[in-house]
Amino acid sequence: MSEQRLTVPPTGRILDMECRCCGGRSVELVIDLTDQPHCNRLVRPDAPAQAEPRFPLRVGFCRVCTMVQIDHTIPKESMFSDYPYVSGTTKTLPAHFSDTSHRIAAAYGLGPQDLVVDIGSNDGTWLKQYAPFGCRVLGVEAAGNVADLAKAAGVPTWQRFFNEACATDILSEHGAAKIVTAAGVFFHLEELHSVVAGIEKLLTEDGVFVVQAIYLGGMVENTAFDQVYHEHLCYYTLRSLSELLGRHGLEVFEATLVPIHGGTIEAHVARKGRRPVGASVRTMQADETRKGFGEIETYRNLAKSVLLLQQKLVGLLEQYRAAGKTVWAYGAPAKGATLLNSFGIGPELVQKAVERNPMKVGLAIPGVRIPIAEERADESPSAYLVLAWNFIDEFLKNPANIAYMAQGGEFIVPVPKVEVVGAAGPRAV
Ligand SMILES: [Zn+2]
């Protein structure tokens, strides 16, 4: 496994695809993470070898509209009909959603007649935060298991994919929406143009669409290549997001970065010309230009940084193994599957992953087949590899983890740079 070596693709290799945003055929390969299984399709540890199909995981840059995207699409029905990610399982997300809903209510005013629609509403964590404002809410969630959790919690939820037809049905049943939100789903969308057209259709005349998506600029600055997986079809900058929305008569009028998932862009969007474009948009545009986020070279350099990360992390894990130290993964998030499969890190280096999410326990991370066990208070390894590195601050405040470090335990943080955190603080590798 650990002989696997990533390579930086040669320049000028055009992928056989139409750009998901502009339809052009000038999408050039910039990062090749090799063939990988679908990261959320967890397998039984004893499943036959090769039980999980593998698909290319390649990132391209559109030379026409600058959209960064993967070329291979696993059909959405196969990825999202039964989804193991539940928003409510960490503390950080509900707090974040509460903050966002209060800002939205303060900015645009919400009353009992108003409708808020959340696309990809998961277990209803975000919509629950609107209770104090007395407005009507509706979630749209394709995955039956989490949609059921939302309904059980009293959040009105339609179990289906959001697209133009769904928007038409919502309009006839509930009327137009003052606010449409989409958090952490906008890069998933196979029917991208149908979804954006549906949002435009669903909004009231002065309605606002609030979108949060992992920010490509943050991925570049954090070397967060592990955000690349088959579910994430597009990776947005303000510029590429604006290109997409502009094709459907929509315009970003406020844009900010929020510190979640290692850097997320939050854009407030209205019909073109409907609201004045704020200074935040011009500031971010200038920042993106200065940092080269619209230049292909930036993404070639990211590929080189990923190779360095692989050398450091695999080298460190081999040292731990040689010293007889045990390493377990702390959590088994989707991004962990990308990191482990890209770097060829299997059970010989990381014996198991421990998880709080009962839907994952007893299964294994696909591809590398690291088994997932329940987190238990009475056993711990020499070090944990923190795959959900974006939640590291929350983990380090946990009293059980403070006690673990006091007894000599360590956390290996793989991204943005390889670091080992122990009782004495972080040390770079
Ligand atoms: Zn394009």
Characterize this entry briefly.
It is built from 13 helices and 19 strands. With 429 residues, it is of the alpha/beta class.
Describe the protein in words.
The protein is of the alpha/beta class. The chain has two domains: 87-293, Rossmann fold, CATH 3.40.50.150; 309-428, Rossmann fold (3-Layer(aba) Sandwich). It is built from 13 helices and 19 strands. The chain has helices at 76-80, 92-108, 125-128, 144-152, 164-174, 192-202, 216-222, 238-246, 279-291, 296-322, 334-343, 392-397, 399-406; strands at residues 27-37, 54-62, 68-70, 115-119, 136-140, 157-158, 177-183, 203-214, 234-235, 250-258, 264-271, 327-330, 352-355, 364-365, 370-374, 383-386, 410-413, 419-422, 425-428. It has an eight-stranded mixed sheet with strand order 14-15-13-12-16-17-18-19. The protein has a seven-stranded mixed sheet with strand order 6-5-4-7-8-11-10. The longest helix is centred in the last third of the chain and has 27 residues, at 296-322. It is globular, with a radius of gyration of 21 Å. The mean pLDDT is 91. The structure holds zinc ion (ZN). Zinc ion (ZN) binds next to loops.
